From TrEMBL:
Name listed for the protein in its UniProt record: Homoserine dehydrogenase
Catalysis: reaction(s): L-homoserine + NADP(+) = L-aspartate 4-semialdehyde + NADPH + H(+)
Enzyme class at the top of the EC tree: oxidoreductase
Keyword Zinc-finger belongs to the record: no
Chain positions recorded as NADP(+) binding sites: G10, C11, G12, T13, V14, G15
Biological classification of the source: Bacteria, Thermotogati, Deinococcota, Deinococci, Deinococcales
Domain called Aspartate/homoserine dehydrogenase NAD-binding: residue spans: 10-119
Amino acid sequence: MQTLRIGMIGCGTVGTGVLDILHRQRAQFEALGFDLQLKGVLVRDASKPRETCFPNAPLVTEKDFLNEVDVVIEVMGGVQRPLDLVLPALQAGKVVITANKAMLAERWTELKPFAKTGQLYYEAAVMAGTPVIDPLSGILRSSQPIALQAILNGTCNYILTQMEKGKDYQQALKEAQDLGYAEADPTLDVGGFDAAHKLTVLARLAFDPDFPYADVSVRGIDTIPQDAVRKALDNDQRIRLIGSIYAEGGQWKAKVAPRLLPMDHPIARAASGRNAMVFFGDECGEIFVAGGGAGGAVTASGVVGDLINYLQGILGPKPIALKAGTPSDPFEDLPEV
Ligand SMILES: NC(=O)C1=CN([C@@H]2O[C@H](COP(=O)(O)OP(=O)(O)OC[C@H]3O[C@@H](n4cnc5c(N)ncnc54)[C@H](OP(=O)(O)O)[C@@H]3O)[C@@H](O)[C@H]2O)C=CC1
Ligand SMILES: N[C@@H](CC=O)C(=O)O
């Protein structure tokens, strides 16, 4: 049995879920030949009560234990602070698993070299535990990508679904926060920026490794009136916040915007709080993936899935450049709201 020393940064909605899975799945890690040792869990307030089944989780407020681990799991959030914590670990040759799409999108210059070496794992950063990074960096690479369209933010999908049921925007946002879906700053969700972070991660992974976050055109749902949501329903349509990547003039483009979707559109059927993605590839055709996109347990399952991949000898996803091919606008018939 090989000992694997783990250090975790953050123990909130996602971190608590990670601790639970690490405890519940310990037989699986042993079956893979690993004895996992949790050396520390960095938090702001170690005395705060936390609901986790992990016995005696070593909660600390000092980062020194990170020098003594093999794998760092970052589920804290933010941009500069987590980057300052994970970069030394990556530079020391350690593996980093993160759910932090804001850090990935905004500080790619520093992180990309470690994505290239396969030290950086980030399945949970996009669509939580619903697998998209894994297939896009694996089996779907055999196809020339044409376009991608997706619901990438669980909070917005929850809010819009609840507004369809007549609930007020503020009440629906409060519920999404209570469910653990929203970011610490919910402006990131409703303003479309969280979806833009995730779209950037996807764009770099499957289309252009250097796609700039600043090039994503972003609109959110914070100005969508209840009337518009109702009117769409009356016409057998739904308003959803859609992220899209497509080719135009020989270049990849990325856009986040609220759009009108026919009720029977595959991604319009994603239930309250869930995410969905359609990927169009020349050879594979249309591939549809849907599932939980926010919340503690499902996101934690993506994080621990990365750990299991690492333990099985699978490297983190490597970004590869693919030429923008056939000009495509899969949204011709999905008007912006
Ligand atoms: N919630 C979700 O559905 C999803 C979240 N993510 C990403 O996962 C990450 C974590 O999200 P989530 O769990 O919801 O966030 P939470 O706000 O619930 O948890 C954040 C954790 O980080 C700790 N923390 C925050 N700042 C500091 C600091 N300066 N020093 C030490 N510890 C700190 C907090 O400590 P304390 O507990 O003491 O306050 C807390 O344990 C984010 O990057 C988010 O974008 C990704 C996919 C889905
Ligand atoms: N705030 C995010 C959480 C997961 O990434 C969302 O609502 O989708």
